[in-house]
């Protein structure tokens, strides 16, 4: 019943929504992004940090389309052994991205770091709630390498990175429990790399189905989704329905059902060849 509302309400209201969004894009409404917290850095570091955020926004937008909301960043100084030791998104209105940064690192180290692409990717789909935090993290983890790959800032292919990241965690999925239950448990136990990368496999399967059966990619579908449907729903089933409607198939709804109900050992490989 829920699926009959919203996205499916009427073709007329949907095309009106898309037309309005395109008009706003053409007016440059979403071109700008905000950076807060720069006053805590000296002038030289400000230039580097601004350039980094701009690179992150452009790369993510290039892969996942125009975001139908202004991107707002908060920078927080933090001494560390890496350029971006900690980051998160706040999904309230407006949504915000918090990046803790060690500005002693040079620009290239910031650009090569995956964090900003991961955080901006989160905002390409609605907040799905605690129950589907594993899926949201799998999505952002999958997308960070799609974005970096397309921007030419990834050393190797996205596939090589996925295998390397997922391989150590396949052991958790040699189980009769469904992947969704395993991923939720890993999240609860704060086994974040296992939960994130185990869940990223969901989107690898989706992307494979898109390219082999529908001649498209998950990233391309998300860029269409951002234009037509984003910010209208926050329900996981609605998201899957919307993506399948755009696709003209039933890949996402079927995959989510499998991840909720099918034994993980039937879905995940024992190891990558
Ligand atoms: Zn994340």
Topology:
Layout: H1 11-26, E1 33-36, H2 43-64, E2 71-77, E3 86-90, E4 96-101, H3 107-112, H4 115-122, H5 133-151, H6 158-166, H7 179-188, H8 192-214, H9 218-228, H10 236-247, H11 251-261
Parallel strand pairs: 1-2, 2-4
Antiparallel strand pairs: 3-4
Bound molecules: zinc ion.
Description of the structure:
By secondary structure, the chain is of the alpha/beta class. It folds into 2 domains: 169 residues, no CATH class; 92 residues, no CATH class. It contains 11 helices and 4 strands. It has a 4-stranded mixed sheet with strand order 1-2-4-3, covered by helices on one side. α2 links the parallel β1 and β2. α2 crosses α5, α4 packs across α5 and α10 runs antiparallel to α11. It is globular, with a radius of gyration of 19 Å. Zinc ion binds next to α4 and α5.
Name some characteristics of this structure:
273 residues; 54% helix; disordered N terminus; 2 domains; binds zinc ion; single chain; 4-stranded mixed beta sheet; 11 helices
């Amino acid at each position: 019943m829920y699926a009959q509302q919203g996205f499916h309400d009427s073709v007329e209201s949907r095309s009106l929504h898309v037309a309005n969004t395109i008009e706003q894009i053409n007016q440059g409404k979403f071109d700008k992004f905000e950076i807060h917290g720069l006053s805590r850095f000296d002038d030289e570091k400000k230039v580097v940090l601004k350039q980094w955020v701009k690179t992150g926004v452009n790369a993510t937008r290039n892969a996942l389309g125009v975001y139908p909301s202004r991107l707002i960043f908060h920078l927080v100084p933090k001494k560390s052994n890496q350029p971006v030791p900690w980051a998160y998104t706040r999904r309230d209105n407006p949504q915000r991205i918090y990046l803790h940064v060690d500005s002693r690192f040079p620009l290239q180290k910031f650009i090569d770091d995956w964090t900003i692409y991961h955080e901006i990717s989160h905002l390409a789909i609605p907040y799905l709630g605690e129950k589907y935090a594993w899926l949201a993290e799998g999505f952002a983890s999958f997308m960070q390498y799609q974005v970096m790959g397309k921007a030419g800032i990834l050393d190797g292919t996205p596939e090589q990175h996925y295998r390397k990241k997922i391989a150590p965690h396949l052991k958790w999925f040699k189980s009769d429990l469904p992947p969704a239950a395993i991923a939720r448990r890993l999240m609860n136990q704060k086994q974040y790399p296992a939960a994130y990368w185990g869940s990223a496999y969901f989107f690898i399967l989706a992307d494979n189905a898109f390219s082999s059966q529908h001649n498209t990619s998950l990233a391309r579908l998300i860029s269409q989704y951002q234009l037509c449907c984003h910010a209208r729903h926050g329900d996981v089933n609605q998201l899957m329905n919307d993506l399948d409607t755009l696709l003209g198939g039933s890949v996402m709804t079927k995959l989510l059902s499998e991840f909720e109900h099918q034994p993980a050992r039937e879905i995940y490989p024992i190891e990558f060849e």
